[in-house]
Here is the input.
Amino acid sequence: MTARQVMDTLCRLMPPDLPLTIEPRRLANNGETLSGQYVLHEMLRLGELLHDKSGKISFQLQFTHDDDSRMSFIMGEIQANIHIVCQRCLGCMDLEIQRTVYLGIPDGHDEIIKLPDDCEPLILDEQSISLGSLIEDEVLLAIPIAPMHDAEECSATELLERINNKNRNNPFSALKTLITKPGN
Here is the structure.
């Protein structure tokens, strides 16, 4: 498949109102807002973590400047309901994601310290970035390291408790056998 065919396929998969790439600083200069949806089966990195790839990610991003109009910011919300693998029972688990996005785009590494405490830096190597990758990154950051059902909801909780109780060894049990051996 040629690069042109790949781009044509990607363009057909994208909703027509969402750009493939964005220039965050230009969007901030214009005070623009982007909103839309992505289907989960298009998110390749995220797809590796999912139980199934049905569903959508909704987002709204506002591009602004600080008071001095020197640093650009991206603020917004990302929402999704994903089906992920529970790390306790390995079954399907619903995970609702509601992530607040607050990214600052410093002009250099020296400006990172000027960002507000609750703002994450977005370092741009180029003027444009992939909108889909930005959204996917934010969803990946919202997923817990080891997602699990609540203990009372998980089918594996009782089994794991029984196994742990059965295999629980007293660290001093070896001393007991030494004390009770005849001839000691």
Q: What stands out?
A: The two ends are 79 Å apart (CA to CA).
